[in-house]
Amino acid sequence: MTATQAENIPQIIAFTNQVGGSGKSTSTVNIGAQLADFGLRVLVVDADDQCDASVALGYMFPDQIDGQKTIYDCLTDKTVKLQEAIVPALCGPYGAEGTKPIDNLHLVLGSGEMENAEQYLTTAMARELWLKRLLDQVKGDYDVILIDCPGSLGLVVIGAILASDRVVACIKPGFKELRGLTRIEQKIEAILEDFAEYGAHAKLTDVLMVDVPTHRSQGAVWDDGKNMARDAYGDLVLPGSTEGQLGIRRSTKIPESYAHQKVLLYFDRAGEATADYLAVTKAMGFKRVAK
Ligand SMILES: Nc1ncnc2c1ncn2[C@@H]1O[C@H](COP(=O)(O)OP(=O)(O)OP(=O)(O)O)[C@@H](O)[C@H]1O
Ligand SMILES: [Mg+2]
Questions:
Q1: Which contiguous run of DSSP H or E holds residue 277?
Q2: What pLDDT is attached to residue 7?
Q3: Dihedral over Cα of 252, 258, 262, 265: its sign
Q4: Is the pLDDT of residue 178 over 90?
Q5: Which of 95, 126, 198, 267 could pair with 262 in a Cys bridge, judged by C-beta atoms 3.0 to 4.6 Å apart?
Q6: Does residue 2 form part of some domain?
Q7: How far is the CA of 79 from the centre of ligand 1 (A)?
Q8: Residue range(s) defining the domain that contains residue 114
Q9: 230 or 289, higher pLDDT
């Protein structure tokens, strides 16, 4: 473990952007798998009603598993403990032949019912603390907790930021996308001000560009997007695995791996996007745990 890893266990990281489709779920599960491969004990929290993190980690229908609790049950029923909603992350579809659990990687199962979460939280007591309180129940069990946020800046996401040590903003390259980051920064600032007494201390520590075109033919934003991000966010912008490249390159393996419900590390071990996620995970300050 690195010094930063050891100082603050577990390290809690929220993957956010109010803009939909900006690579939050893809990055949460693939960085999670990489960290687990490093030998860290990792928990992925699926806080989005689309349940993409759950699907990517093997659970296509998280609400339909007999007797299994989900994040929504934990949110709405104080008698349900977070442990009850935690399942092993899988490589392949749940119940299919050959599907195996991924070592060191667990998942707080998502739920389609989370679409009612904002409404529920509107009238709940100490609503912004909902996720912090739940994560406190399992803190000792994990080295790193990654939260896949929905594409909004509502109460679910405020709760995620409030529970976190650091925030990773995921963006696709482009001017509009980059402008959207200002709102996340403002939101974090407001949360820090309003909830300092509850220990709010999250920082925007990383900007992760995804779906980065590798050739001009793939889009005019090729160089511009890269330079704009660097100009605006400097060293916060995470590098990729090749010289001068930022973030995660565009790769057809990403939608394919999602469709197969296998993280990149097991779907396309030697692939470019897999190498980029490894580089990003290292650039975030993590390394393989010595055995
Ligand atoms: N590097 C990449 N190359 C190609 N496609 C990508 C890449 N990264 C993400 N995508 C695709 O972009 C889409 C959005 O990604 P993802 O679901 O991770 O975003 P999100 O921010 O979680 O979206 P939402 O806000 O809807 O939850 C998906 O179809 C995904 O396959
Ligand atoms: Mg998502």
A1: helix 272-283
A2: 56
A3: positive
A4: no
A5: 267
A6: no
A7: 35
A8: 7-283
A9: 289
Q: What tens digit of pLDDT does each residue of 68-99 get?
A: 999 999 999 999 999 999 999 999 999 999 99
> In this structure, which residue's CA is closest to atom 30 in ligand 1?
255
| Atom 31 of ligand 1: nearest residue by CA position | 255
- The answer to whether residue 151 is domain-embedded is yes
Tokens of 100: 């195996």
Which atom of ligand 1 has the smallest separation from the CA of 249? Answer: 1
Distance of CA 150 from the midpoint of ligand 1 (Å): 12
- In angstroms, the CA 251 to CA 272 distance is 8
Distance 101 CA to ligand 2 centre (A): 22
Instruction: Determine the Cα–Cα distance for residues 39 and 5; give it in Å rounded to an integer.
Output: 13
Q: Sort strands 144-148 and 42-46 into parallel, antiparallel or unpaired.
A: parallel
* CATH code of the domain covering residue 140: 3.40.50.300
Distances in whole angstroms, Cα of residue 74 to Cα of each of 47, 83, 148, 252? 11, 9, 16, 36
- Which ligand is the nearest neighbour of the Cα of 23? 1
Ligand 1 atom 29: the closest Cα is on which residue? 255
- Global confidence as pTM: 0.96
| Separation of alpha carbons 80 and 94, rounded Å | 23
Q: Which residues surround ligand 2, an ion (CB under 5 A)?
A: 24-25, 52
- Rounded Cα distance, 143 and 12, in Å: 9
Q: Which residue in this structure is represented by tokens 């195996």?
A: 100
pLDDT bracket for residue 3 (50, 70, 90):
very low
The answer to whether residue 290 sits within a structural domain is no
Report whether residue 250 contacts ligand 1, using a CB cutoff of 6 Å: yes
Number of domains in the chain: 1
Q: Please state, as a whole number, how many other Cβ atoms lie within 10 Å of the Cβ of residue 253.
A: 15
Task: Give the model's confidence band at 1: pLDDT under 50 very low, under 70 low, under 90 confident, else very high.
Answer: very low
Alpha-carbon 131 to chain mean position: 14
Judge whether 104 lies within some domain. Answer: yes
User: Which residues pair with residue 14 across a beta bridge?
Assistant: 147, 167
37 within ligand 1 shell (Cβ under 6 A):
no
